[in-house]
Write a structure and sequence with these properties.
There is one protein chain. The chain is mainly beta. It has one domain (about 5-305): Porin, CATH 2.40.160.40. It is built from 3 helices and 13 strands, in the order αααβββββββββββββ. It has helices at about 5, 10-15, 40-55; strands spanning about 80-95, 100-115, 120-135, 140-145, 150-160, 165-175, 190-200, 205-215, 225-235, 240-250, 265-275, 280-290, 295-305.
Length: about 300
């Protein structure tokens, strides 16, 4: 489900996004979805297959510090490199927009692709390939649907100095790929813009995101929902192979009665990054901080980097 402060690419990594992104999938207990896209088209399914196969076949070696966090790291990947991410997620008591469904969500192949655009920028594509949900409230049985994908560009505005933090800017667009009739996604196009700031303090890298989001209104096509995104996170190096990761990431809607799917969202994460087997493994526990979020969850993933050009 990213967000932007909410990392849209994984807001799915964790609910939807949203990341992901992803993206934020704050659900309403009220009215059920009507309309939306019909059956999934062949080009949509083909695109998903191409993305997954491409990510799985890319050669790997190590870097980048994003997973398992949603808050975006303001640092860019090394010049001339490509970074790939693959992961899985579980959310107990996940809630979904528009339909009011609640259940246990399994996020399959939460992935990311990061391509260097030089020493000061990178292009990002990410999202969750597929969601599977065991419905426990307002319905029964199992549901599944494709996840939304996000496209971002991260640009370094100012490099970190002795006293100056690193400052970056990251615009993101989240493209609809879910099917409204399956009642797991909002099937809308969302835009986010975030300012990213970070500073190193000994073994700890502290960073945060703040920005604006424009979400499709799920009730009135002529309207939009304007939200604020936020995130604060820390990476602490424990030894040469292991780092601890922690964050609080979310979205705030200033409206008293926002449309379904645009409610306040938030979650905390606490986990580890471990360098092993030629890449970086990660694992983290998650917990929702608003009534619209999942109760508890777990994410697990693997990140690899390789040098394409110098």
């Amino acid at each position: 489900m990213s967000w932007s402060g909410v990392n849209e690419s994984n807001r799915a990594d964790f609910d939807p996004l949203p990341p992901s992104a992803a993206l934020l999938s704050p659900p309403s207990r009220g009215r059920a979805a009507e309309g939306g896209r019909g059956s999934e088209t062949a080009p949509s399914v083909t695109l998903q297959i191409v993305v997954v196969v491409t990510l799985l076949l890319l050669p790997f070696s190590a870097s980048a510090q994003q997973r398992p966090l949603l808050t975006e790291d303001p640092r860019v990947i090394p010049d001339g490199s490509v970074v790939t991410e693959l992961g899985l997620g579980y959310s107990r008591g996940a809630r979904f927009p528009i339909s009011g469904l609640e259940g246990d969500q399994y996020s399959l192949l939460a992935n990311g692709l990061h391509i260097s655009l030089g020493s000061r920028a990178e292009f990002q594509m990410g999202g969750v390939v597929h969601h599977v949900v065991r419905v426990r409230e307002n319905g029964t049985g199992w549901r599944n649907d494709w996840g939304d994908f996000s496209l971002s560009t991260k640009m370094v505005v100012a490099r970190e100095g002795r006293r100056r933090p690193i400052i970056s800017f990251r615009p993101t667009i989240v493209l609809p790929n879910s099917n409204r009739r399956k009642e797991l996604g909002a099937d809308g196009t969302n835009f986010f813009a975030s300012l990213l700031v970070g500073k190193t303090f000994g073994r700890i890298f502290l960073f945060g995101n703040g920005g604006l989001g424009v979400l499709d209104d799920t009730i009135n096509a002529a309207l939009q929902q304007d939200v604020l995104t936020y995130g604060i996170a820390a990476l602490a190096r424990l030894n040469s192979r292991t780092s601890a990761a922690a964050e609080w990431n979310g979205l705030f809607n200033p409206l008293d009665n926002p449309s379904p799917g645009a409610e306040d969202r938030g979650q905390v994460r606490l986990g580890l990054q471990i360098q092993a087997a030629g890449g970086r493994w990660d694992i983290a526990g998650t917990a929702g901080t608003t009534p619209w979020d999942h109760r508890l969850g777990l994410v697990f993933g693997f990140t690899k980097e390789f040098q394409v050009w110098r």
